[in-house]
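Our platform keeps sequence and structure together, in a single record for each protein. Such a record has a labelled line for the sequence and another for the backbone structure tokens. The tokens are whole numbers drawn from a learned vocabulary of local backbone shapes. The remainder of this section carries one protein's record, kept here as part of the documentation:
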Amino acid sequence: MSVLVAILLFIVPLLLLLLNHRRCSTMKTKLPPSPYKLPIIGNLHQLSPPPHRSLHALSQKYGPIMHLQLGSVSAIIISSPDLAQEVMKTNDLVFASRPSLVTANKLFYSSEDVAFTPYGEYWRQARKICVLHLLNSKRVQSFGAIREDEVEHMIEKVSRKTSLEPINLTMLLNSLTANTISKVSLGNSLEEGLSNKLCKLIEELSAFFETSHLEDYFPCLAWVNAINGMNKRMNKWFRDWDGFLDQVINDHVVRSVGSQNNTNADIVEVLLSLQKDQDSSLSLTMNNIKAIITDMFAAGTDTSFILLDWAMVELMRSPRVMKKVQDEIRCIMKKKSKIDESDIAQMAYLKAVIKETLRLHPPLPLLLPHESMKEATIRGHRIPTKTMVMVNAWAIGRDTKSWEDPEDFQPERFLNSSVDFKGNDFQFIPFGSGRRVCPGIQFAMTGVELALANLLCRFDWRLPDDMKAEELDMTEAPGITVRRMSNLLVIATAY
């Protein structure tokens, strides 16, 4: 009897170990294909900058759905339109959350914004506020006078330069978008000192997204940011930004804000009115308001300016396209001296130029990361709960099954085509799709179209010092948003 018990005591644990090993092996084989991993760091060594390019290269070998181990973070990389559709449409709710990120937690009021906050009731209500009250069609149209004024200020700055003096167009475009977002969000009454402070704070905020943080991949290494000074810099920025917003909000309170139904209200006014609204389904705290305003600046400034800059660079590299789009705009405008937003609807080729720029240069090439809220299956591959999912919009825009000659700048591919960037055509998703699609698409594109149309209509452009178009530096700067490393210097001649 004792021998039988001894055998059972030996065999049963052994069988359990074998079953567990088999179960783990089966689970492992169900994960998507993966490059070879190193101990501890996993696949981090294979993410050479810029990551969207290195991930695209890996996908050519391992397929459009890959599993990477990024330190302690399990990540899935999606690089094709059909798989993007499975993630952001078929399984949209499963992947609707966001992972916790150091920068978002420290700078966006513990991720109480819309872009970075995890999926849940707060996110649903905050997004509803953005869609229904802040960025609806009527509100976007109400900001038209601000956009037109800021574009006219930019045109005046260009006009003051001689036809021999190079213009730093990158800086002008950055100022245009920052000033527009400032007036839309905070109103027209900023004093010069506060306005200068705002510009500095926006520039510093963009810089924080140019580097990754070890803590995001190794939570146990959170102390590194304390040693290298990153925590100190982020904490100082946050104190300065929070103090700046306090001053702006207090000024609005003193001026007794009106109703959110006021079509001339700025974003702060609308949010403060909603906060006081007893019938609102969401009780907005002051930190909620500040986080949403921070979103407006982080998303609105970089996205629009980067798109405009890349568009002008591609046009400088393609004289044929430059002439064609200028001819279209000038033919429509004839003797009108200034383009307003009602004229843009007729400019099909201009819209195609902007779409083609977005295809080749999505401002967020990897979009913002998603996170699975429960286990899911994609194309037979098991995706565990709390897996980070990154969609490579840059790679999808170059997918050879969707695009002919994908590396060429050919706006004609969008003429007489229904393909759009609103999230329904998965071969072209520069703003994402599904529940997490960017809520500010209309706001961003309206400003970009107006600015680009005026620049192209009112000036002819050339490169300085007999520089050739092929000499333009196309190197991408690091960061989650991808601007060019070099500023665009051009010479403008009034048309």
